[in-house]
């Protein structure tokens, strides 16, 4: 009799699979349990086995083709009467190969391993696969959707209040300049990193700006996972976090930030970096607005906006002179703090920016 | 270093940092970022690489004031070049 080999279902949410490779050809004698093809699902590549013994008549599915579950992909000639009832198609279990380190990492962090595609031999999930977030980054529309969801939620749920201070940067820029003159080019300190360091220092003094508001309760976070908004060249914004930023000195922060920016653009972020930020900084860089009033990234409770550094008239000792300034803003959650807390936080940030030697 | 030499180096730097950009299509008298996809981080890397190649350090207060590449090229050409000073003695 002729047996049509169907595209198997490899999970409840699978409605089609992509044929990646045939391991059989017409005329082959196939044993039960023999691997006949490789199929890629949204989750991973899986080898599928034959449930019948027989001879391959023809291959209906082409390599690279997306085939709906249940549709025949091959025809076998098998022993037995044509009238015999078809046994129900058994759904093979998708056995995930996982390295012990990857399994431990995933268990510790509640990562769903079925969502990860392994890069090791035979599709084994390695530690690096678990660390690297494999989805929405590359897909512009998914990212757009994720941003829309988070920001709509934030604007609906979080009663924001906004504060702004203008800070002169003369002292800070001079200090950075003195440092950089004596550093090799590749170790050059980035001004934004020095600003981040000042933010981190203030957050340590104002823990009510660093943490999560969940189930109507605010929980301050001891570690500062500083989320940094980074505009992607492919469109959209990601906010990966500099994890445990409070433990880094200025030099370490400088290296970590540059590494983070490059990995963000390459789509090589780790899960934790995208999910564990405790506060966000958005930095307008050298192009863009002089001030930015950001939308808090829930469940965080504060966002610090660093405007474009620019020259402005500054009054000092009754004399007006041109000087570099930056407008720093705070968007904070009124359920957790009041304007007075926010003002104190900004004042602390201003003090830190004016005393850069304490930021090392 | 004259402006032509610096421009040559800048072409190399652009090729390393943003190989997708055709430097010949950039009008160096016009704002760079209105013409090509270069963010502030890329620009920082350009400054760092130019420093590596020329030995000339450009402070941030200058970097922030450049409105186009010509200003960067002119500024760099006006600085004494440590690399050039060394070479005759070698």
Helical amount among residues of chain A, as a percent range? 25-40%
Global geometry of chain A:
elongated
The CATH superfamily of the largest domain in chain A is identified as Chloramphenicol acetyltransferase-like domain
Q: Mind telling me which CATH architecture of the largest domain in chain A this is?
A: 2-Layer Sandwich
* Proportion in β-strands of chain A: 25-35%
- Mean pLDDT across the residues of chain A is 87
According to DSSP, the number of beta strands of chain B is 0
In quaternary terms, these chains amount to heterodimer
Low-confidence stretches of chain A: 86-94, 133-138
Q: How would you characterize the largest beta sheet of chain A? A: 7 strands, mixed
How would you sum up this structure, described in words?
- The complex is a heterodimer of chains A (360) and B (90).
- Chain A is of the alpha+beta class.
- Chain A folds into three domains: 76 residues, RNA polymerase II/Efflux pump adaptor protein, barrel-sandwich hybrid domain (OB fold (Dihydrolipoamide Acetyltransferase, E2P)), CATH 2.40.50.100; 32 residues, no CATH class; 220 residues, 2-Layer Sandwich (Chloramphenicol Acetyltransferase), CATH 3.30.559.
- In chain A, strand 18 and strand 19 form a beta hairpin.
- The longest helix of chain A is centred in the middle third of the chain and has 18 residues.
- Helix content of chain A is 27%, strand content 27%.
- About 4% of the residues of chain A have low confidence.
- Chain B has one domain: ACP-like (Non-ribosomal Peptide Synthetase Peptidyl Carrier Protein, Chain A, Orthogonal Bundle), CATH 1.10.1200.10.
- Chain B has five helices and no strands.
- Chain B is globular, with a radius of gyration of 13 Å.
- With 90 residues, chain B is an all-alpha fold.
- In chain B, 54% of the residues lie in helices and 0% in strands.
- Classes of the chains: A alpha+beta (360), B mainly alpha (90).
- The interface between A and B is medium-sized, with 21 and 19 residues.
